[in-house]
What does this fold into?
Amino acid sequence: MESTGTSHAPALQRGLALLQALATRPNGATQSDLAIQLKLPQTAVHRIALALEHLGYIQKHPATRTLRVTHKLLLLGQPHSGGRSLIEACMPSMREILELTNETTQLCVLAEAQCVILEQLPSRHPFKYVVDLGSRAPTQCCAPGKAMLAFLPEPELNAALDQLTFQAFTPNSILSAEALLPELERIRKAGYALDLAEHFEGIHCIAAPLLDAHGRPFAAITIAGPSSRIPKSAFERWGRAIAETAADAALQFQL
It folds into this structure.
């Protein structure tokens, strides 16, 4: 008779529990923190962490020794195209956008109702906006997050809205679901999203979603830089170009 319950694959269960714990802690956690949270011996956490680090699903900060999930874990939830990763499929389109705008170009996905940076090509300007890969941004206050939210099916959108924590990062931050919904409707009509210094003062972003064959978003491509170099006069021209290039990236990934 086949066994059931917690006796089933305990090592796998512990590994998944550790990944789930780290997924809710964007700044990472130490092995001691994880041992306390998961109620496991530190030796067990150390052994599991070593295995997951070897497989590339978590990484250890060399100075703080904290553990955090890598983009490899985030990609597990995305559709796959043969042997190509999402990053590989999108890189030509990202280079095209960088060539057009000269601004930092990023590839993002949704995870736990947050926008996560998977890859970026830095701006060619001496002064540029760059972030650590794996960084998370509040979905309602960044262009790629809003671009993906706008095209979610209604049940998924409602679930995502329930998870958002609205707070004022700048005077332009969106502070409620009621204020966000009209913005999402505008994004659906235009095909691209804007961040008007909603997360960081003086930083503008323009993003477009990558949609699958059913019109569901699985990623977004964005540019980010100083508002002086991404002025309102460039929004429509660059927004349409980014939307077209993101659509091509989505098609290339699904071929």
